Every structure is written in C-alpha cells, then in structure tokens.
Fold this sequence. Notes:
Elements: E1 7-12, H1 16-27, E2 36-39, E3 56-59, H2 61-69, H3 73-76, E4 81-82, E5 85-90, E6 101-104, E7 115-118, H4 119-127, E8 136-138, E9 142-146, E10 153-156, E11 161-169, H5 176-181, E12 185-201, E13 208-214, E14 217-223, E15 229-235, H6 237-245, H7 248-258, E16 266-282, E17 286-287, E18 290-292, E19 298-299, H8 307-327, H9 335-364, H10 368-382, H11 385-395
Parallel strand pairs: 1-2, 1-11, 2-8, 5-13, 11-18
Antiparallel strand pairs: 3-7, 4-7, 5-6, 9-10, 10-11, 12-15, 12-16, 13-14, 14-15, 16-19, 17-18
Helix pairs in contact: 1-4, 1-8, 8-9
Amino acid sequence: MNRRADFDCIVVGGGMVGLAVAALISREERLRDWRVALLEPDPPRRLREEQTDLRVSALSRASERILAAVDAWPAIAPRAGSYTEMVVWDAASTPDGPDALRFSAAETGEPDLGHIAENARIQLALLDSPALRNVTRLQTRLKALDCSGERPGLVLEDGRELSCELLVGADGGGSRTRELAGIGRAGWDYGQTAVVAHLVAEQSHRETAWQRFLPSGPVALLPLFDGRVSLVWTTTPAEATELIDLQPEQFGDRVTAATDRVLGSLELQGARAAFPLAVRHARQYVRPGLALAGDAAHTIHPLAGQGVNLGFLDAACLVEVLAEASEAGEESSSLRVLRRYERWRRSENSLALGLTDGINRMFGSRSLAIAALRRAGLSLVGAQAASRRLLVRHALGLRGDLPAIATSADPETGQ
Length: 415
C-alpha cells in the first residue's frame, strides 16, 4: 500500500503568483481538505511606511477581484494609484495630436482603468492574507525533483525529502521547477532593457497613464498614489547603461525630453534599476502531477503592463480546474485534468504574448511606410469609441475566457 503524500500541493515560489495560487487553493471550499505548502527561501522584506518599492505593476480589474477574494486587496488599495485615463502617442506625434490614442474609464462605464501598485506591497498583502493561515511555509530551496514515480518527489536544500500529489512551479522566469522537470521554452531576447525609477513631476499626472513610443522602445509614466510617477523606459542596453550612470539632474532632464514634457519637468527621486527584456513561453505548462504558472510558464514585454495580470489569471484558472475536478471525483493531479488548465491558459497567454510582441515591433520599425500606417491606425482606433471600449475591457481582464472569480462583482463598487 503506497504511503500517503506529505502534501496534496506544494507551491514553489513565494512571489505574487505563487502566493496567489496557495491562497486561492486554501480558500476554495471544494479543496478544503487539501494540505498545502509554500516553498520560498526568501520571504519579502517589510517596507517602512515611507518606502516605495521601485518595481510596480498595473493591476487589472480581474486581478483586483482575485486579490479581493483572498482578502489581500484591502491592504493594497490605500497605496494603489488608480488611473482613469491613458494616452498613447508616437514619437513623430504629440500627446494632444489627432493620432494620439486616448482611453477613458468614463466611456467604458468602469470606475477606473486599473491601479498602479508596488510589487512588494502586493506580495506582503498576499503573504498576510488570512487564506494562508493553514498553509505550511517551507523556507528553503528546491534542490532536486523526481517526477518519474507515482507522484512528484522533492529534495530540499535543507535535506528534507517530500512528496506531493501536485507540484505548482510559480518560481519566476528562471524557474528551477521548470528546469528540473526538463520543460523547454521558446522565445528570444529583445535586445532591450527596461529602466525603472520614480520621479516628481512639475504638473499633476491627473490620474493618467502616459506612454510614448520612441524608435528604441516605449517610455511610460505611471501615476503613483502619492502624486509621483513611476517610469518604465524601454530602450537599448547601451542607452539604459547611460541612463543609469547619469547624474540625477541629467537623468530627470533626459526623461523630461523623452516624454515630450507631457508633465513638465521631471525630477528623479530615489534609486534607479534596469532589467533586460525577453519573451519566453514554456513548451508545456503541465506534466503528470506538475503545473507551471506565471513567469515560470511565460514572460512578456512590459509595454502593455500585463505580466502579473496573466499570472494571477493562471492562478485562478488552475484552482478552478482543480476544484471542479475534485468536485466531480476526478484525480486533480492527473494529466487529463491538468491539460484542461494548459489548454485554457496557453491559448489566452499566446494571444497576449503575440499581440504585445507585434505592437513592440510595429512601433520600433524605422520604415516610413510602417510609420505612416501606424499613425493612421492610431487615428482610426482613436476615432471609434467601440474599438476603444473593446481594448479597455481586454486590458482590464473583463473579456476572454475568464475564471469565475475574475468575473464576480466587486463588493464595494458593484462593477
């Protein structure tokens, strides 16, 4: 008679997506008997009230609902800067030109277009979620993995050997889980680097996200809750190195010029950082007893701000599939069940990765003909309210094949 597994589910990775997976499983009534563990060697640091994390995410409405479902949103909301407008324009145009693309929450019936929140605050809110109270914390690393037996077997760096019915790899783009499982990836490096920083603007950001497409990549100013803006400037590695090395005043001047002075003069506050960009897609999301979620399965260009939103939808879809299988008396960790999750999310993620990559390439082209078509396309979309509403609802995670938890009404807004 086979020994019972140590856990029903072990989630590898205590980032935003891994925490969401563990919390969603723990709160799911249909999985109430599951024993869940979270494997993460480095818990997030506790920030002081006056500290602002350099890395931020643009949270969609679907992500907001998922976070609310695990009681994490109330801790995030006070420091999440909502934005009700978005303006996108080409380097050859102006933010108030006829070919600039403007999105407004008012014309979609939504209270906002999303929220800009600090990654560390999201992570801490999830870590403190009541849904994680019954989750076992394993503060060590995954050393080895054996998926050849009846169930996954793990060897941890602290010497422990554990087994589980289902192993979820949510340990980021450099996923150790994916590597040990022998799952390859397709994709490429962009030859671009994202420079991030926070700045004080001469003019109010007016709860607006601003994005200008330069030949080397997009530069975005995202509204923070305290009136400042968060910069995400995608450019060449050489220019990124130059920007990081500039004196603070020079850096502010360069960002001011790159953003067409849309908010007047900009002044750097705090640190800067740079991150190389790539697109990657796992060749498989699942194996018997194993599933990948978030960046472990896919990484995406940041220009559309969809990275963590796709990861949260992975988490919600995976848990919904597991819960429905359990309710039907199926073996939740079987390949037959897990492939439902893979089919669901791989198609949705492939669409997002392809669309984002195409936009980046289109705006990065130096061809005069493509530039003319690009501006004509922006003008056409900008003139059609129905097209703008459709794009906004996609960005908010309100269209497509969604998990039930992402379509439920928010208790505060009723939206």
